[in-house]
């Protein structure tokens, strides 16, 4: 089974592959893609349990990445810059560290947690994720979203911005009055509690890496200081910069591409 894929732009231009975050789908990137599509071929995938890949179920991030690889190969996408946000960024980092995606030529991460939890912290995280999954799998989605966006990582959002984001998620996912067990399963399958510490491995991968973080995202602004990544782009946003400030995100991405374009022949990007 393949993941739902959308492709915009000229297939002869450099390829950019976008992976969305938890509760999202490929449409999360639409505002960024509209700014890039004249110069790049942009590809989005709906991760397992999400969007039009909702019926695709996996038991681990490794299985999810295998599906990403199979899907990209099926579409003939063999060389690309991989861009990921949050859950998608953790997929991208994990896959690159363990050489699970054959086509990655460069990597841009937004809001990625690279791990490093203690054993006690992993146990607590798994407990917390299990609680979230139980709510998502048994209560209406709209109730889950009201709770989800009260987490501290989204504290930079105003009440109006939070309401707008919840409405956006309800529009994308649909069935706000129903539980979503497929999303709950993906939440547990890709729990940070099950992810190895990627920080040391990131220091030794061959591909150029960039990290995008919002200046209002206090948690990840601190986390990135401990990551072996030199190209850091700071947006005037919170945790979800590509939605909050798509122009800044697109500018950062283009700057990263241009900085390292001498490392690649054009088709390699």
Order of SSEs: EEHEHEHEHHHHHEHEHH
Strands of the widest sheet, in order across it, are 1-3-2-4-5-6-7
Residue fraction in strands: 5-15%
Q: How many strand segments? A: 7
CA radius of gyration is 17 Å
CATH architecture heading of the largest domain: 3-Layer(aba) Sandwich
Helix content: 40-55%
Mean pLDDT: 95
Sheet/helix structural class: alpha/beta
> Tell me, what's the shape?
globular
Seen as an oligomer or otherwise, the chain set is: single chain
Show unreliable segments: none
- How large is the count of helical segments? 11
Structure report:
The longest helix is centred in the middle third of the chain and has 20 residues, at 119-138. This protein has 2 domains: 5-117 and 196-268, 3-Layer(aba) Sandwich (Rossmann fold), CATH 3.40.50; 119-186, no CATH class. The two termini are 26 Å apart. The mean pLDDT is 95. The chain is α/β, with parallel strands linked by helices and 269 residues long. α1 (30-36) packs across α11 (246-260), α2 crosses α3 and α4 (119-138) packs antiparallel against α7 (181-189). It contains 11 helices and 7 strands. Strands 1-3-2-4-5-6-7 form a 7-stranded mixed β-sheet, sandwiched between helices.
Task: Describe, in short, the structure shown.
The protein is of the alpha/beta class and 269 residues long. The chain is built from eleven helices and seven strands. It has two domains: 5-117 and 196-268, Alpha/Beta hydrolase fold, catalytic domain (Rossmann fold); 119-186, no CATH class.
How do the helices and strands line up, and which of them pair or pack?
Layout: E1 5-8, E2 15-19, H1 30-36, E3 41-45, H2 61-74, E4 80-85, H3 87-97, E5 104-110, H4 119-138, H5 141-148, H6 159-173, H7 181-189, H8 199-202, E6 209-214, H9 218-223, E7 231-235, H10 241-244, H11 246-260
Parallel strand pairs: 2-3, 2-4, 4-5, 5-6, 6-7
Antiparallel strand pairs: 1-3
Helix pairs in contact: 1-11, 2-3, 4-7
């Amino acid at each position: 089974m393949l993941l739902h894929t959308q492709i915009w732009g000229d297939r002869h231009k450099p390829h950019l592959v976008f992976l969305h975050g938890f509760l999202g789908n490929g449409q999360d990137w639409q505002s960024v893609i509209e700014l890039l599509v004249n110069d790049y071929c942009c590809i989005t995938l709906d991760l397992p349990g999400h969007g039009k890949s909702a019926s695709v179920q996996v038991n681990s991030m490794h299985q999810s990445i295998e599906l990403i690889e199979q899907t990209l190969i099926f579409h003939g996408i063999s060389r690309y810059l991989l861009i990921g946000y949050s859950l998608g960024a953790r997929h991208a980092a994990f896959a690159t560290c363990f050489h699970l995606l054959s086509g990655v030529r460069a990597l841009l991460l937004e809001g990625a947690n690279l791990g490093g939890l203690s054993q006690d912290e992993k146990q607590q995280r798994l407990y917390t994720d299990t609680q979230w999954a139980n709510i998502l799998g048994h209560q209406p989605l709209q109730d889950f979203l009201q709770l989800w966006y009260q987490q501290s990582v989204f504290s930079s959002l105003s009440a109006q911005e939070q309401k707008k984001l919840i409405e956006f998620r309800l529009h994308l996912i649909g069935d706000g009055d129903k539980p979503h067990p497929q999303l709950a399963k993906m939440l547990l399958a890709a729990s940070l509690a099950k992810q190895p510490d990627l920080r040391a491995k990131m220091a030794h991968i061959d591909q150029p890496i960039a990290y995008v973080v919002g200046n209002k995202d206090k948690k990840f602004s601190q986390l990135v200081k401990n990551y072996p990544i030199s190209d850091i782009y700071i947006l005037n946003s919170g945790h979800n910069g590509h939605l909050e400030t798509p122009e800044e995100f697109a500018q950062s991405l283009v700057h990263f591409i241009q900085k390292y374009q001498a490392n690649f022949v054009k088709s390699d990007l």
